[in-house]
Amino acid sequence: MDKAKKHPIYLSKEEIQKLVQKVAREIESAYSDLDDKSPLLCVGILKGAWIFLADLVRELKIPVEVDFMQASSYGKAQESSGIVKIEKDLSCDIQGRDLLLVEEIIDTGRTLDQVKKYCLERGARSVRIASLLDKKVKRIVPLDGDFIGKEIEDKFVIGYGLDWAEKFRDLENIHYVEA
């Protein structure tokens, strides 16, 4: 049985690929002055961003390096404190580097806001954000992505790295869960 059959497709794999290409062209334009001596450090935010990151860096025509971070926000019960705990830190020195935080979806913005500040405090020259999806309607902190594939309405989406209780990340399309 198709594990996504009961969840309607929101974005097909072809539509996703077009969004990846769009984001890649915008990134290339913004970072056209990079060379092999100063490549862009693309930082995938685990767990969800790894599929988008893989497709994105293969699409980019500029020098890049890749690393990963995993961050979690903790708070009381249903109310997040906005405090972020770094579960997996970067494995390279970011002093003086241009970083691109890569996320599959921006929701409240709390975690990305804190991760961006954390990287700047550690000496990154610049920190920008690329996200396949942006759910601005859920934003709690004033954070904007720099390179966005598509702004979406308030739908719960799964697939292409997006999970529901750690399931459905492996779906090639993005589906929405009907209420």
Question: Can you describe this structure in just a few lines?
Answer:
The chain has helices spanning 13-30, 50-59, 110-121; strands at residues 9-11, 40-46, 64-76, 79-88, 98-106, 126-134, 147-151, 156-158, 174-177.
Give an overview of the whole structure.
- The protein has 179 residues and is an alpha/beta fold.
- The chain has a domain at 14-29 and 38-69 and 94-151: Rossmann fold (3-Layer(aba) Sandwich), CATH 3.40.50.
- It contains 3 helices and 9 strands, in the order E-H-E-H-E-E-E-H-E-E-E-E.
- It has helices at residues 13-30, 50-59, 110-121; strands at 9-11, 40-46, 64-76, 79-88, 98-106, 126-134, 147-151, 156-158, 174-177.
- A 6-stranded mixed beta sheet has the order 4-3-2-5-6-7.
Strands side by side in the biggest sheet? 4-3-2-5-6-7
Percent of residues in helices comes to 10-25%
Compute the CA-based radius of gyration.
16 Å
Overall form: globular
Helical region count? 3
Count the beta strands: 9
The structural class is alpha/beta
Listing every helix as H and every strand as E from the N terminus to the C terminus, the arrangement reads EHEHEEEHEEEE
User: Beta-strand percentage?
Assistant: 35-45%
CATH architecture of the domain at 14-29 and 38-69 and 94-151: 3-Layer(aba) Sandwich
Characterize the largest beta sheet: strand count, sense, and whether it forms a barrel: 6 strands, mixed
